[in-house]
Write a structure and sequence with these properties.
It is a single chain. By secondary structure, this protein is α/β, with parallel strands linked by helices. It has helices spanning about 10-30, 45-55, 75-80, 155-160; strands spanning about 35, 65, 95, 120, 125-135, 145-150, 170-175, 180, 185-190. It has a single domain (about 10-190), classed as Rossmann fold. About 25% of the residues lie in helices and about 25% in strands. α1 crosses α2 (about 45-55).
């Protein structure tokens, strides 16, 4: 007998609406940290990463899971109905426990930049770690964001991604029950 997958949202409609609003706010105000609640997700996924998956994926959304997240594939398939793909270039969303090589994912085209992937990446913390200065659309003035769990050369990795605009990868960072977003439009410098 197979165990039932862990519960998803406690209140699926309202929790998904709140999470969607938090993701939209994070995308439109890069670096803004939102706290997410109302979801039970399986290890190794944290609350925010699980909520983002439940909110953004459906049966028409191909998702790529890095090997460290593979244990959650049954939960993703059951709750989201999303097809798990083996080829990172074929996904609309990717989930990783550490920043994957962004060049593996679809970056869209000049005619269809929306065909790029969004990577949901779990990090350790937003209260310590490397500090980055963010600027660009959605920010009236520069903001600072501290992140523990990104590669030391993240600012240069991001610079290459940002230079592809209007193409490029959007990034949702999740730490426990918190998330923030780094859309391809934001410039990032290490402080």
């Amino acid at each position: 007998m197979t165990a039932a997958p862990e519960a998803g949202f406690a209140d699926p409609v309202h929790d998904a609406q709140r999470c969607f609003r938090a993701i939209l706010d994070a995308m439109s105000r890069p670096g803004r940290i939102a706290r997410i609640s109302g979801v039970t997700s399986p290890a190794p996924l944290g609350v925010a990463a699980g909520a983002a998956l439940l909110t953004l994926l459906d049966h028409e959304t191909p998702v790529w899971l890095d090997p460290d997240v593979w244990a959650a594939r049954g939960w993703v398939a059951f709750h989201c109905g999303a097809a798990v793909v083996a080829d990172p270039a074929a996904c609309a969303f990717a989930v990783a426990m550490s920043l994957p090589d962004l060049t593996l994912f679809a970056e869209g085209t000049h005619e269809e930049p929306e065909r790029s992937a969004t990577v949901i990446c779990q990090v350790d913390s937003f209260s310590k770690g490397q500090t980055f200065r963010l600027s660009g659309p959605g920010l009236r003035e520069e903001e600072e964001l501290s992140v523990q769990g990104l590669p030391r050369d993240f600012a240069s990795i991001w610079e290459r991604n940002h230079a592809l605009f209007p193409r490029g990868i959007d990034l949702i960072l999740c730490a426990g029950d918190q998330l923030t977003a780094l859309p391809r439009t934001v410039s990032i410098q290490e402080v």
